[in-house]
Amino acid sequence: MDSVTGLITGTSGGGAQCNEGVEEGGGVRHRGAHVEMKLVALESEEGSQVPLNSDIITSHQQTAPCRTPALYLTLIGLLIFSAAFLLGYVAFGGMCRSCQEERDLIPLSDAAGSERVPEGGVMFMSELRQMLKKYLKEDRMENTLRRVSRTSHPPGSSEGNAIASEILQNLQNLRMDHTWTDSHYATLQFPSRSQRNTLWLVDSEGVELEEIPLDGDGYCAYSATGTTTGGVVYVNYGRREDFDQLRSLAVSLNGSIAIVRVGGGVSFAEKVWHAQEAGHVGVLIYPDPADVPQDPRRLGLHSNAVISEHVHLGSGDPYTPGFPSFNHTQFPSTQSSGLPIIPAQPISANVASKLLSQLSGVGCPRGWQGRLPYVQCVLGPGFTGPGERRVKMGVFNKMKPVLLNNIFASIEGKVEPDHYIIVGAQRDSWGQGAVKSGVGTAILMELARTFSTMVENGFSPKRSLLFVSWDGGDFGNVGATEWLEGYLSMLHLKAVAYFSLDQAILGDDNLSVYSSPLLADLIEGAIKHVEHPKHSGQSIFTLVQRQGGWKNIVKPLYLNSGAYSFTAFGGVPAMQLRFNEDTRVYPFVNTQLDSVGRLQELLQGRFCAVGRAVAELIGLMVLKLSHDHILPLDVTCYSSAAQQLSSKLSLHTTELQIRGLSPQWIFSARGDYSRAARSLLEAIRNSDVQDERLARLYNTRIMRVEYYFLSQYMSVVESPFRHVFHGRGDHTLTALAEHLSLLRSDPHLFDEVRFRRQLALFTWTMQGAANALSGDVWNVDNPL
Fold first, then answer.
1. What CATH number does domain 128-187+400-627 carry, 3.30.470.30, 3.40.50.11690, 3.10.20.90, 3.40.630.10?
2. What's the sign of the alpha-carbon dihedral 15, 21, 26, 29?
3. Beta strands 574-580 and 495-500, pairing class
4. What distance in Å separates the CA atoms of residue 420 and residue 703, rounded to the nearest whole number?
5. What is the rounded distance in angstroms from the CA atom of residue 482 to the CA atom of residue 403?
6. Residue 704 burial (C-beta neighbours within 10 Å; 0-12, 13-18, 19+)
7. GO terms for biological process (predicted)?
8. At 484, is the secondary structure helix, strand, or coil?
9. For residue range 565-606, what is the model confidence (pLDDT) as tens digits?
10. Which of 84, 249, 467, 600 has its CA at a distance of 20 to 30 angstroms from the CA of residue 706?
């Protein structure tokens, strides 16, 4: 189908309510402790309804003049007694059934949040779960996936604009409370139309000996441009530890071009950054068969395929770092410090094999051997054979200003409408992008349709729901980050949580969660109620427990994640879910081969089942956040991370004291935060959480915890990822711990001045978070 218009706008189920304990015949409806009596008109002997008014009584009195008043009183009394008895029995029985169901399905710790409000008709979570399951439609997701992934649709293209228009129209047809677009002019980089990127073997004089053909569609957005020449060094995955090992082997790196494998847990941007720090003048990145399957007959890449990814060590428009790229702003010309100053280019396995097979020098360390054919693992930088040969690479990508359009639709909350639960997905793709953009968009649109239908059928969220289709995702979450930058001053007051749907399906076996730790308990609750897409009759939680426990699936947010900027830059709790294949890898992400057919082949035609599981998981978490009186976020989660730092500092107490340094203040800040978190939880337990004013005060403190950990002492322009636990830079816990470890591994590299600054930055950010979580200034723990 060429259009998704109409695919996501319809409702289903005939508008049936999921209300429990409804007695149709007697006209009595009960919901918890709230009892309603539906007045039903009396029926005549023929079955027609008679209006319920005073004329009925008059009529009956006239047709039975022989009845005495005493008999009337007796009959009326019996009727009243019987009706009262039946009404009480039905209401009490319904209350017991409802309460028992809630005890069975909702954890004890959630009882306060899930209690029904007597006024306003708020539904039980069990009712909402059933509504969500009822209205989710699998086939709609596949239709949207096929439409979005029909062809390449990068930002600013005619196909990209057509898809954006359809999405906007479909969201408007859902009768959301608000639908709008948010536009930015961002600077993106594309391959040059007039001069293609090149790779040559040259002699010692720079004379070109042989051109090595490159894939014209493969490039690294935001690479430095120009030509560079040097020897070639194989650097494995390009991780920091890989370069440390090369230095220990005395391999000459300065002035050479690095050949690096895809994978290893680091992004293209990090690989290029590490190579640049090591003194390389260029980077070539290839997919090794050991990491990326390369047998086209068995769902693999062909040996001439390349993987493209941006190399900006950051997110958003790198030419407006820290501030929004609105076309009416007049910020001075600047650029992100995360832009590389050396060129980078993706190459195929065949090209890598051709270069690596000719290297001479030291043999590879253990574990570095890939699976390239005819390659003896040698590090370089020289070439075998007569004469001195080198490699010359030329990158001629062009910058282009592009109008990006983010699309928003919202359902307004009834109690805290200015608090938003945000669900978003990338819309653009350099290729077909079935996994890159199609999967997320399909799930996003189905969730928007489902929640809209639920609202029409009685669902009334306390907090607002925001559904967003982001533009410019292929270039480092540009659209999402620019929106964050534009509204950063208010989002920490408004945003409850963000759920990214990007690349949510790469298989159907194992679930991975990349998340802020505040949301970890939320996923635990959700996976108990969702059936595993591959194992009928078993919940995801059951299978996760067999594989070592649900906490093993929760991992830290990573730089290229669609959720990373929300937490590390915006201070908003964020999460990204992903189903992965247990034994096979989907190798086509960031290639021109990322198609619906290949994804369905990997899933054996089961995209709809996996898509439904992801949508249900996200939907349940959104329901929980929009339903509970108190936000179910774990404010104690950072106490343990700070405790681990305290333990490391304690191990180095002697070395620190020799230098006049004391860990006392970090111990104090950690203790203050732990006490503040426990005090807040105790106050909530002892409060009437149905008091809307009081609940809002507590929720405001809870939802800002991530924001509290954005270092207020760092410039948002120079260090945009200011979060001390998830960010990047000298102010982070990671940087502090790495520097501390030098006290024993390399004491001569330990910089006392730098460490004092790091310790101060982390200590006072932690102390500030403790003070903020305490609430009012008179509650701050500061004994004499």
1. 3.40.630.10
2. negative
3. parallel
4. 11
5. 12
6. buried
7. endocytic iron import into cell; transferrin transport
8. helix
9. 999 999 999 999 999 987 778 999 999 999 999 999 999 999
10. 467
Tracing tokens 């409806």 back to the chain, one arrives at: 29
How far does CA 689 lie from the centroid of its chain?
29
Exposure string over 421-432, b if 16+ CB within 10 A, otherwise e: bbbbbbbbbbbb
Q: Which residues contact 110 (CB under 8 A, 6 or more apart)?
A: 525, 628, 632
Query: Which residues touch 602 (CB under 8 Å, ≥6 apart)?
Result: 299, 507, 581, 584, 586
Main-chain phi, psi angles of 565, to 5 degrees: -60, -35
pLDDT band at 75 (very low <50, low <70, confident <90, very high): low
Give the pLDDT of residue 82: 57
Spatial distance between the Cα atoms of 12 and 136, rounded to a whole number of angstroms? 9
Residue 440 near residue 502 (C-beta atoms within 8 A): yes
Span 198-396: which CATH code? 3.50.30.30
Cβ neighbors of 544 (< 8 A, separation 6 or more) are: 511, 527, 550, 552, 553
Angle (nearest 5°) at CA 496 between 492 and 499:
115
> Would you state the pLDDT for residue 5?
39
Q: How many of the other CB atoms lie within 10 Å of CB of 730?
A: 16
At the fourth CATH level, the homologous superfamily of domain 637-779 is: Transferrin receptor-like, dimerisation domain (1.20.930.40)
- Please indicate, yes or no, whether the overall pTM of this predicted structure exceeds 0.85: no
Residue 244 phi, psi dihedral angles, 5° rounding: -60, -40
Token pair listed for 624: 């929980």
Range in 194-208, 328-342, 424-438 with the lowest mean pLDDT: 328-342
Sheet holding 389-395, edge to edge: 208-211, 198-203, 389-395, 226-230
Look at residue 564 and tell me whether its pLDDT is greater than 50: yes
